[in-house]
Amino acid sequence: MLVTELLQTTPDPAAETALTLPDYDPETQAALFRYLLRLGDSVLILGQRTSEWCGHAPVLEEEMALANFGLDLIGQARMLLTYAGALEGKGRDEDTLAFLRYEHEYRNVTMTELPNGDFARTMVRHFLFASWMVLLWARLQSSADPHLAAIAGKAVKEARYHQRHAGGWIVRLGDGTALSHDKTEAALDDLWPYTAEWFEGDEDDARLAQAGIAPHPSELAAPWRETVTPTLAEAQLRIPPESPFRSHGRWGRHSEHMGHLLPEMQYLQRAYPGGKW
C-alpha cells in the first residue's frame, strides 16, 4: 500500500505499519529517512507560517487562497512524515515527528521558518519555494522509491498552482505602484540568499542520487533560476547578486525565529500528550 492510499483509506496514523517498505541497505534507508524529514519539515513549517495569515490577508480571496496553501503543505507533510516514521521503525508517527522534536532535530530549509512579514514578502517566498518544489516533485515522480514517487505525483499539482498564484502576485506587485515595487524588491533582496541552501548536497544526497531515489540538489539550481527569471523580469525586479551568506536549516542549524515558532506549533501536543480529536 502506498502512503497516499494509506492516508486516504485510514484516519489512524498508527496504520503506517501497514506500509510495505522497500528493501534498502541500512545506510540508504537512514539517508532516505533524513531526506524525508528535510522535505516533510520544510512543507510543515511553511504550512505553519502560511496559516498565520488566517484572518489577516488583504482581501477575502487571498484569505481563502493562503488557507488552502497552508492545508496543501500540511497535507504533504503528513504523507512525508508518515512514510518517514514507518521507514525509521521506532514507532514514531506523523504527529510525534511533527510536534515532539526539539529545534535542532528539525531539518527544514531556513527560508520556511522566517516570519511572514508583509504580503509582498509572503508572495516572494512562496513563489521562490514553489518554483523549487515544482522542479523537485516533478523529478521525484520518477523516483525508484514507489512511496516517494506517489507522494510527488500528488504534490506536484499543488505546487504548480502555488507557483502560478504567487507568480501572478509578484508581477502585480513588482510592476505596480512605486511602493509595491519597492516592498517586493526589498523582499527579494532579503530572501534570495536563503535559496543557496536548497542546492547544496551532502553524503545523503549523493547516496540517494546514486540509487535513483532523488535528484542531487545541485541538479536543480540552473533549472530553478531559469524558471524564476522570466517572472521576475516581467515584474521589473532585478535578481540579487550572489552572496557568501549560507543558511543551514537542512542540517538542523536554524535561525532565531524557529525557537519562537515551535512553542506555538507544538503547544497542544506538549500540553496534552497523546491527545486525540
Architecture overview:
The protein has a single domain, classed as Ferritin, core subunit, four-helix bundle (Ferritin, Up-down Bundle). By secondary structure, the protein is mostly helical. The longest helix is centred in the first third of the chain and has 29 residues. The chain has 10 helices and no strands. The N terminus is likely disordered. One of its GO terms (cellular component) is cytosol. This is Phenylacetic acid degradation protein. InterPro entries: Aromatic_CoA_ox/epox, Ferritin-like, Ferritin-like_SF, PaaA_PaaC, PaaC.
Write the layout of secondary structure elements.
Elements: H1 3-9, H2 26-51, H3 60-88, H4 94-99, H5 119-140, H6 146-174, H7 178-191, H8 203-210, H9 221-234, H10 258-271
Helix pairs in contact: 2-3, 2-8, 3-6, 5-6, 5-7, 5-9
Tag the structure with descriptive keywords.
mainly alpha, globular
- In terms of quaternary structure, the protein is single chain
Helix proportion range = 55-70%
According to CATH, the homologous superfamily is Ferritin, core subunit, four-helix bundle
Query: Uncertain regions: pLDDT < 50 for 5+ in a row?
Result: 1-17
Overall outline: globular
CATH topology: Ferritin
Mean pLDDT: 93
Number of strands: 0
CATH architecture: Up-down Bundle
Distance between the termini: 25 Å
Order of helices and strands: HHHHHHHHHH
Rg calc: 18 Å
Pfam family, one: PaaA_PaaC
InterPro entries: Aromatic_CoA_ox/epox, Ferritin-like, Ferritin-like_SF, PaaA_PaaC, PaaC
Organism: Hydrogenophilus thermoluteolus (Pseudomonas hydrogenothermophila)
Protein name: Phenylacetic acid degradation protein
